[in-house]
Design brief:
The protein is built from nine helices and five strands, in the order αααααααββαβαββ. It has 224 residues and is of the alpha+beta class. The protein has a five-stranded mixed β-sheet with strand order 2-1-3-4-5, sandwiched between helices. β3, α9 and β4 (203-210) form a beta-alpha-beta unit. It is elongated, with a radius of gyration of 20 Å.
């Protein structure tokens, strides 16, 4: 049945206006962007199908455009709308952590990095560079790898920190497997980077490993 024929209190848009966005399921929120379904399936059904296909919301937003646009009812226009929504959320969180001490808003930093990295089908290593007050100066994607690994060169990391005149840095990388558990190689790399940056008086505040549903923090685990 088309959403237009549903009781008003069950329609995603009306439900959002009456009860707020938190009252909606992931599929219902997607349906508001998708607007229409396909023959025999409502926009909510299409949202559920996307979530099942991609595994999660981050999987939907990080999916290959060719795969998404191959789904009946989801062409390039709807793909563009989803990507725009995703980027707006990422930029809004970026503004939040840039305007204050990043260490005072760890949840915002985690959410921002999850939006930036979760759902990628290859490993990415990035640095969030901070000033002496721990405010964000810049974010740089330093290295990009394969499904299982990426090569990180300490010399290039040091050059990046000096280029931005950073006082501190937060590292982050994703695990395309979806498991947010630091490997021994991650631990060795973090120690190498910490020692290299200490030579130029740049502190490593944290290294976050981003999985599909969770983020692991080296600092919280006492690994720095």
């Amino acid at each position: 049945m088309a959403i237009a024929h549903w009781p008003a209190h069950e329609r995603p848009r009306e439900k959002l206006l009456a009860r707020g966005p938190r009252a909606l399921s992931d599929a219902e929120l997607l349906a508001i962007f998708l607007r229409t379904g396909v023959r025999g399936a409502s926009a909510v059904d299409l949202g559920r199908s996307l979530l099942a296909r991609c595994g999660s919301l981050s999987g939907v937003f990080g999916a290959d455009p060719r795969m998404l646009t191959a789904v009946p009812g989801l062409g390039t226009a709807k793909y563009a709308q989803l990507q725009a929504a995703f980027e707006l959320a990422r930029r809004a969180l970026g503004e939040t952590i840039a305007a204050r001490d990043a260490l005072c808003s760890p949840a915002a930093v985690r959410d921002y990095l999850r939006l930036s990295l979760a759902g990628r089908d290859h490993e990415v290593f990035l640095a969030v560079l901070l000033d002496a007050q721990n405010r964000v100066i810049a974010e740089e994607e330093l290295f990009r790898g394969t499904l299982t690994q990426t090569s990180v060169y300490p010399r290039e990391v040091v050059k990046c920190a000096l280029r931005h005149n950073a006082a501190a840095v937060i590292f982050a990388h994703n695990h395309p497997s979806g498991v947010a558990e630091p490997s021994q190689a991650d631990c060795t790399l973090t120690d190498t980077l910490r020692r290299s940056l200490a030579l130029v008086d740049v502190r490593v505040l944290d290294h976050l490993v981003v999985g599909r549903e969770a983020v692991a923090s080296f600092a919280e685990r006492g690994m720095l």
